[in-house]
Write a structure and sequence with these properties.
This protein has one domain: Rossmann fold, CATH 3.40.50. Helices cover 30% and strands 17% of the residues. It is built from 7 helices and 9 strands. Helix 2 links the parallel strand 2 and strand 3. The radius of gyration is 17 Å and the shape is globular. It starts with a strand and ends in a 10-residue tail after the last strand. The structure holds 6-phosphogluconic acid. 6-phosphogluconic acid binds next to helix 2.
Length: 256
């Protein structure tokens, strides 16, 4: 997987704008090659601000939004429509404003549809497998997953990514693409997350991080820490790993 590249921005607003313009460019480039593009979205303040910035961008309509698949890296196991669901926030910020194809919006199942987060995780894994089978790509990164052209992540102050928290079962999970989480230290404890191996199957992984409280996590991740202790350290794309950070998050980078 690709060594991390780092791009430092003056502050969170410009960071979100930069993520938005890169995302638009990436989707247009992929669509020019293949028609359909696939993005994995993140929750969190930067991820959501980036989606708002996509909507506000003068080049927003250069993307054919009806030909984009949307998946999510993780979700809180809550009822459909709950304001703390990443999918609800993404819909408000961008998706509901665009002519997206509802059949290409792949939300995690909710707590009113599934008895528990494990059942919702199994359902998401099955839908990912179905999408992978439909693509039937030669040389697919992982036969259980569709091709993820870009996968976006936020990073917590404890260096968690998606709902994979340091030292817990989720980050240690091997052999499955999606995991049900019962013990997230941030509420709610019940969540659903892609596993690290799924994240690493993406062509490009982008980590968008702002603020001084993230500086320690960014420093450790980019100093080559282990991914069980520092999950963000393990987040790498096959072709590109891009850390998009602001100056405050950069103060503990190795060599600064
Ligand atoms: C959660 C949080 C968390 C968030 C990161 C990055 O899981 O409860 O939403 O995962 O995405 O902490 O958040 P920011 O983009 O706000 O820094």
């Amino acid at each position: 997987n690709a060594e991390p590249k780092i791009s430092i921005h003056p502050g969170p607003t410009l960071l979100a704008a930069s993520v938005a313009s890169r995302l638009i460019t990436r989707l247009v480039d992929v669509q020019n090659e293949r028609g359909t593009a696939t993005v994995v979205l993140t929750g969190g303040s930067i991820g959501t601000a980036a989606l708002k910035a996509v909507w506000e961008s003068p080049t927003c309509r250069t993307v054919d939004w009806s030909q984009v698949h949307f998946w999510w890296g993780d979700e809180r196991f809550l009822p459909a429509g709950h304001p703390d669901r990443n999918a609800v926030q993404a819909r408000e910020a961008l998706l509901d404003r665009l002519a997206v194809d509802p059949a290409k919006v792949h939300e995690f199942g909710s707590s009113d549809q599934f008895p528990d987060q494990y059942a919702a995780a199994a359902d998401y894994a099955a839908r990912l497998q179905e999408a992978a089978d439909a693509e039937a790509l030669d040389g697919a990164a992982d036969p259980r997953l569709p091709r993820f052209d870009v996968l976006m992540l936020g990073v917590g102050p404890d260096a968690h990514i998606a709902s994979l928290f340091p030292e817990l079962a989720g980050i240690r999970t091997k052999g499955s693409t999606v995991v049900g989480v019962a013990d997230a230290p941030k509420p709610p404890p019940e969540r659903i997350s892609l596993t690290l191996e799924s994240i690493r199957s993406a062509e490009e992984v982008w980590l968008a991080v702002a603020g001084e409280d993230k500086a320690g996590a960014v420093g450790l991740a980019l100093a080559g820490a282990g991914s069980v202790q520092v999950p963000a350290a393990g987040a790498r794309g096959r072709n590109k790993t891009l850390w998009l950070i602001d100056q405050e998050a950069a103060v503990q980078l190795p060599g600064r």
